[in-house]
C-alpha cells in the first residue's frame, strides 16, 4: 500500500484542519496515511521553519507531503505555500466567495474559531459538562427539569459518552438513566421518568456487540450472558415502542453519529457549535 | 447588523461542515448568522426537498442562504446545487486535487468520516472516556500508570472538561489531580504524584476569572475569596516552576485550545482523530 505523510496545519488550534482532513482522507482506501498535527503556526518565521521540515520530508520520502491547512493570516499561509507539499487551505478556498457574498471583508484574525470569543458560550459548555457528570447513570433525577434530553438504555449501550459529547460539543444538557432489571420486568414507565417522557430518547445496540463490550468489563455472573443481554435489549426496545420513545441503534455508529441523530430526531437546538 | 441564514449540510453527520463553517463565520464580525445543521441528507430526494426549503428561505429573506456542505455523493450534491443558495462544498473543492495527487479515486461513500469504520478506534475513545471519568479529581491514582497525561491545577481551573475532551476527541488517557490546600502549603511534590512527574501538566487561570467561576459554584466560605484564590494560584504556579512542569493559562482559552496546546507541548500522539 502506498504510504503518504499528511500534515494538519493551522495558525490556530488545528481542529478545523484535522476534522476536515480526516473527513477527506477516509475517502481513500488504498493509501496509508501517516498523520501529524501542527497547531499555532502563527508567525511567518514558524511557517518558514515548517516549510523546511516539509521539504525535508518530501526529499526523504520521494513524494511530497499533503498539507491540509486552515490559515486565517494570509502572510503566514503565503510563507508555508513556498514548501514542496500539496497545500489545500480551507480559508484560502472559501473566504473569497464568502467575502463577495457578504460584501464584507473577513477579519483575518487568528484565535477566533474554537477560541474563547465569548465567555458565555464557554461557560455553557462547562456547565453542560458538569451537568452531564452530575446526571450520569441515573443520578440527580430531581434535576431532570434542567435536562434538554434524558438518554435511556441498558448498561453499556453508549449513554455516558454520548451525553458528554453533547455537552462538550454543543452545550446540550443531557442526563442519562440506565434501564435496570427492575425497570425491564414491568410494563410500566420506570418510576421517576414519567414526568419527563417528552425528553426521553432511547439507545439500543446489537446483542453480540453488547456482549463483547460487557465481557471486557465483567466476565463473570449474568451481566454478560447471551440470555440476560437478549432479555434486557428486547424489554428495552419494547419499552421504547410502547411509550413511543424515539431511539437509535448505536451498534455501527460513532459518538458523532449518535449525537447528530439525536439532535436531528428531537429538533433540539445547539447552544454552541464546534 | 445584517442577518444571514447559514445551513451546515451533509450526507453524513454534518460535523465537518459545522466545524469548518463555524470557523469561517467567526471571521465576519459585522454579520449576524442564524445557523442550522441538516445532517444525513443522503438521497437525491432529500436533497431536492432541502433545495426547496432553501429557495423558500431565499424568497422570504430576500437574500440567498449560505450553505456550507460536505457531500461525498456527487449526485446528491448536484441535486442540492440546484438551489438558490451560495453552496460551498468542501469535498467538491478538495477531493479533485487529492485524487490527482494520490492517483487514486476516492470512494464517494458516505458514513465514513466520523463513522465507525473501525471498532478498535471507537473502543479506544470509549475506554479513554471511562478512564477520564474514573481518574477524575484525584481518584484512581493507582491507575496513573495507564495515563498518557495527568493534569494538575487548583479547583475550577479547567481540568475535567479538558480531560474529557482529550478522551472523546483523541482517545488520550487523561487523569486529573486537584491541587488542594495541603499540597500547596509545602514545597514538596504532592505525595503520590512524584512517580508520574514526566506525565504532569499544569493548568492555571487568572485570579479574577477563577473568582467569577468559583462564586457561581459556592459563594460562602473561603473558597471564592480573593485572598484564598491568590494564595492557591501563586503556590500552584510556583510548584509548576519548581519542578519544571509545563503549564498553560486557561483564562482566555477554549477547551479546544487548551487540548491542542497540551498535545503540542507534550508531543503526545493522538490515538484517534476527530
Shape of chain A: elongated
Total helical elements of chain A: 10
- Assembly type of the shown chains? homodimer
Q: Calculate Rg of chain A over CA atoms.
A: 24 Å
The SSE string of chain A, one letter per element, is: EHEHEHEHHEHEHEHHEH
**Total number of distinct structural domains of chain A:** 2
> Between the first and last Cα atoms of chain A, what is the distance in angstroms?
34 Å
Overall strand count of chain A: 8
Which regions of chain A have little confidence, pLDDT < 50, spanning 5+ residues?
none
Given this structure, which CATH class of the largest domain in chain A is correct?
A: Alpha Beta
Biggest interface between chains: A-B, 78 and 76 residues
Strand content of chain A: 15-25%
Describe this structure in words.
The structure is a homodimer of 274-residue chains. By secondary structure, chain A is an alpha/beta fold. Chain A folds into two domains: 2-102, 3-Layer(aba) Sandwich (Rossmann fold), CATH 3.40.50; 119-266, Rossmann fold (3-Layer(aba) Sandwich). In chain A, 45% of the residues lie in helices and 16% in strands. The first copy, chain A, has helices at residues 15-25, 44-61, 74-81, 90-102, 119-134, 159-170, 181-184, 207-217, 226-242, 255-266, and strands at residues 2-10, 31-38, 66-70, 86-89, 149-153, 174-178, 200-204, 247-249. The first copy, chain A, has a four-stranded parallel beta sheet with strand order 2-1-3-4, sandwiched between helices. Chain A has a four-stranded parallel beta sheet with strand order 6-5-7-8, with helices on both faces. In chain A, strand 5 (149-153), helix 6 (159-170) and strand 6 (174-178) form a beta-alpha-beta unit. In chain A, helix 6 (159-170) packs across helix 10 (255-266). The mean pLDDT of chain A is 93. Chains A and B meet through helix 1, strand 2, helix 4, helix 5 and helix 6 of A and helix 1, strand 2, helix 4, helix 5 and helix 6 of B.
Amino acid at each position: 500500500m502506498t504510504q503518504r505523510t499528511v500534515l494538519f496545519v493551522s495558525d490556530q488550534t488545528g481542529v478545523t484542519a484535522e476534522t476536515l482532513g480526516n473527513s477527506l482522507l477516509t475517502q481513500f482506501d488504498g493509501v496509508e496515511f501517516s498523520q501529524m498535527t501542527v497547531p499555532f503556526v502563527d508567525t511567518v518565521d514558524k511557517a518558514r521553519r515548517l516549510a523546511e521540515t516539509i521539504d525535508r520530508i518530501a526529499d526523504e520520502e520521494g513524494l511530497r507531503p499533503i498539507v491540509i491547512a486552515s490559515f486565517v493570516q494570509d502572510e503566514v499561509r503565503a510563507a508555508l505555500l513556498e514548501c514542496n507539499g500539496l497545500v489545500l487551505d480551507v480559508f484560502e478556498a472559501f473566504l473569497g466567495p464568502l467575502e463577495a457574498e457578504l460584501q464584507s471583508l473577513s477579519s483575518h484574525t487568528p484565535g477566533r474559531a474554537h477560541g474563547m470569543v465569548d465567555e458565555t458560550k464557554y461557560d455553557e459548555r462547562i456547565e453542560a459538562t458538569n451537568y452531564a457528570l452530575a446526571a450520569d447513570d441515573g443520578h440527580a433525577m430531581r434535576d431532570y427539569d434542567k435536562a434538554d434530553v434524558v438518554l435511556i438504555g441498558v448498561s453499556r449501550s453508549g449513554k455516558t459518552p454520548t451525553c458528554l459529547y453533547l455537552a462538550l460539543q454543543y452545550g446540550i444538557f443531557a442526563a442519562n438513566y440506565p434501564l435496570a432489571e427492575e425497570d425491564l420486568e414491568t410494563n410500566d414507565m420506570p418510576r421517576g421518568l414519567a414526568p419527563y417522557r417528552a425528553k426521553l430518547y432511547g439507545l439500543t445496540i446489537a446483542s453480540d456487540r453488547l456482549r463483547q463490550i460487557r465481557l471486557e468489563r465483567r466476565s463473570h455472573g449474568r451481566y454478560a450472558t447471551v440470555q440476560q443481554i437478549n432479555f434486557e435489549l428486547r424489554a428495552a426496545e419494547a419499552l421504547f415502542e410502547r411509550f413511543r420513545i424515539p431511539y437509535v441503534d448505536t451498534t455501527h455508529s460513532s459518538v458523532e453519529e449518535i449525537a447528530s441523530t439525536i439532535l436531528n430526531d428531537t429538533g433540539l437546538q445547539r447552544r454552541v457549535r464546534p
